[in-house]
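User: Second chain of the day. Same drill as before.
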Amino acid sequence: MTHHVADVPLVDLKRPHAAIAEDLAEEFERIFSGMRLFLGPNVQTFQHDFAEYVGSKHCVGVSDGTEAIYLALRALDVGPGDEVITVSHTFFATVEAILLTGATPVFVDVDATTFTMNVPAVERAITARTKVIMPVHLYGLMADMDGIMDVAGRHGLRVVEDSSQAHGARRDGKAAGTVGDIGTFSFYYSKNLGAYGEAGGIVTDDDDLAARVAVLRDHGSRERYLHEEVGVNGRLDEVQAAVLRLKLPRLDEGNQRRRDHARRYSKLLESMPVQTPELFGADHVFHLYVIRTLDRDALQAHLKEQGIHSGIHYPVPCHLQPALAGRAKNSRRLPVTEKVASEILSLPMFPELSDAQIDRVVGAIESFFASRLSTSVDAAS
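Assistant: Same format as last time:
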């Protein structure tokens, strides 16, 4: 009888749930007995706790990460005729939110090492219509915020940080989301801090921006049935807020485990023909552990055969998406972005990952390159 070895998943969502299941059942019972289902005590508490966690004055809970970006831009009065400078190497929601305001996305390339916004490229992309710079903190690593804030300050521009993959990440002592005018978060279920489905939040130290987002998320209304502007239904519900509130105290420990896993991966992959991510000490929270290799597609297929799940974040850059045709600026080639998209591979990464699982992933990568090498040696002899 062959012994079946369990697959190594890209992310494991069941184990973190087990850790809070009992507390959550009690909280759900409370919610459903009171039937106050949105903007209730769990939302209030989570908003307070998350603001405190990142070191921001305000957190406004919203329905999802896309809505968070959209509402942040709306709060800054971004609309038709305005330009927002961002990156193409991101999930489509970043750009979607810009388009939904009526503004035009302007793409700049990314840095070849960090995969985040190339600061000199930002300066070159600024025009009279530029209103906002929107860096994306990717894979758990913050973009170069000092450089970005310097450019923004000199040109009188606002900064929105897309922090959807950077819960708890820091740079120069400041948490992701707290450096620019507004920081936006997705609490999508697979994130470092994830809800059970969809949720999002915005953080800011600006009282007026926080108040504006709070009104916009609730149909542009402060008082029921009185609408001062056109908003959206972007409220965070009590069930998701309860999940987030119970998970938040475990976030730092989970992030530390991710960093430990990343260190192990990088050490074991040292001798192989792959580019591993820079570790950035305690600042990187490794939402994803992403390597680069010229043999990406063949390697991914090999891992799959070995029962190892991997991902590509993201295979088609935003500027090459069909929906963007004719709707963005500077969509001529972004060479680094395009090259990166063809070479990146996300390996399994989640706090509960075991050393044995990491060793198995690395062993499979090693066997892949060994077989490549022997094939090329055979061909040469």
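The chain is about 40% helix and 15% strand.

User: Great, on to the next one.
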